[in-house]
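Need a sequence for this fold. Nothing fancy.
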């Protein structure tokens, strides 16, 4: 532990200038955030002309009708136009809030509310909680019309929206209440660790955040998810038999197999698993079961079980924890930096003893361009995991020694095509746009690789038969 703390202290010595130099951090954050927005807009403009193509990629031509392709192109074009407007509008709002002291005002407003409740400003944790939710609620209001338009105009136009206005408002209110119910104790514990551990908070905070993530694995399916969707045990039948049989053969610790009413809000479809290492739950959208045959849904779940087999969720969690560690290792220099808060219009008496939550918020803003580059790397790792999961599904016959799994790769291919067609997913994708935004390979890439993998497995099978 001493070695860790000495290393962290060395990092802080190199960043000591942050606490004394009068750097115009507001200007840099404005430049950073606008640079990221302009870059993302550039990527959209690279992608946009591809929606004018009149035929699908050669690899997809036999699988997608002209009508479905035309629909996906129109849907993609509408989404791109909306994304560009939303991005620029949101950036203008964020930039204005930054420029005119919105965050300093929120801190002052939180202090005023705290005073009316009979508490003084020495209750920093309580003021931080009020500050966070004041900022969260007020900053979400300008972009609320965008959510309304996306749901009731864009998705409605293309036949995906199933959400009623009452359901939309109910979801919004419930999400705010959940954010407060979970966010308040989380934030209180988060800030208490800073007060208790001082500048040696990094290992303690890492332990707390890992524990909280594990707690959410339990709370989300049992408490949060049922507030929005109904999960019911998958009824007996061919699909349930296939999934339970596959899970048993792979020794997947399946505890519950659910169907979720995704059609309550949208026509989009999906399937996923969650849970602790010894107790897993599989959730299948009702829309997926309506759109695909049982053997195709089984292939989709074989892909998902590939993620479990190769420990992809655990690996991604380890990567994210290392990412969080590097952020926390840099933070102490910004935690005790009055010039940082003064740059963002906070009064001298607040900046003299920077509130932890405020310093952390501003620190995250400074990291904006770095986070954009990190997201590219995270997407690359995620796409690699997707390739591995696809290969796992295709090679199930060899692993389980069962002839019934021989066509699993073909079934997965058909399922992916159905998912893309029914969801009107984009089939023409710019490589740079995809690298930045997509955590999954494109459908064209996946089908090409699946064909090569099938050929490879066929050659291996022929060679093995000749040897023996």
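Here you go.
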């Amino acid at each position: 532990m001493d070695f860790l703390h000495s290393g962290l202290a060395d990092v802080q010595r190199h960043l000591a200038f942050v606490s004394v130099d009068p750097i115009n951090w507001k200007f840099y954050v404005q430049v950073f955030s606008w640079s990221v927005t302009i870059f993302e807009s550039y990527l959209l403009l690279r992608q946009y002309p591809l929606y004018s193509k009149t035929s699908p990629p050669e690899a997809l031509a036999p699988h997608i009708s002209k009508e479905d392709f035309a629909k996906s192109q129109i849907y993609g074009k509408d989404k791109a136009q909306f994304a560009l407007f939303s991005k620029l509008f949101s950036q203008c709002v964020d930039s204005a809030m930054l420029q005119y002291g919105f965050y300093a005002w929120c801190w002052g407003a939180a202090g005023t509310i705290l005073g009316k409740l009979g508490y003084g400003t020495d209750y920093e944790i309580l003021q931080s909680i009020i500050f966070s939710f004041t900022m969260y609620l007020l900053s979400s209001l300008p972009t609320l019309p965008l959510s309304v338009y996306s749901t009731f105009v864009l998705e409605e136009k293309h036949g995906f929206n199933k959400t009623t206005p009452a359901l939309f408002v109910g979801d919004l209110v419930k999400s705010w209440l959940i954010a407060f119910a979970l966010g308040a104790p989380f934030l209180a514990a988060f800030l208490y660790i800073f007060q208790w551990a001082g500048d040696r908070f990094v290992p303690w905070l890492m332990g707390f955040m890992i524990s909280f993530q594990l707690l959410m694995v339990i709370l989300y399916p049992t408490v949060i998810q049922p507030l929005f969707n109904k999960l019911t045990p998958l009824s007996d039948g061919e699909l349930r038999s296939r999934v339970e049989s596959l899970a048993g053969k792979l020794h997947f610790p399946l505890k519950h197999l659910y169907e979720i009413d995704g059609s309550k809000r949208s026509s989009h479809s999906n399937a996923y698993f969650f849970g602790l290492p010894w107790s897993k739950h599989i959730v299948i959208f009702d829309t997926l079961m309506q759109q695909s045959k049982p053997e195709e849904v089984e292939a989709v779940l074989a892909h998902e079980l590939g993620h479990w087999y190769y420990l992809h969720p655990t690996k991604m969690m380890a990567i994210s924890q290392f990412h969080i560690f590097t952020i926390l290792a840099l933070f102490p220099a910004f935690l005790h930096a009055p010039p940082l808060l003064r740059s963002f219009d906070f009064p001298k008496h607040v900046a003299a003893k920077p509130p932890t939550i405020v310093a952390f918020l501003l620190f995250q803003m400074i990291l904006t361009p770095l986070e954009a580059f990190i997201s590219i790397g995270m997407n690359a790792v995620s796409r690699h995991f997707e390739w591995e999961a696809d290969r796992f599904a295709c090679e199930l016959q060899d692993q389980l020694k069962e002839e019934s799994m021989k066509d699993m790769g073909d079934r997965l291919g058909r399922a992916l095509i159905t998912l893309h067609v029914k969801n009107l997913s984009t089939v023409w994708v710019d490589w740079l746009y995809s690298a930045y935004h997509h955590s999954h390979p494109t459908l064209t890439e996946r089908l090409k690789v699946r064909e090569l993998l099938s050929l490879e497995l066929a050659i291996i099978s022929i060679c093995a038969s000749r040897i023996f």
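For context: The chain has a mean pLDDT of 88.
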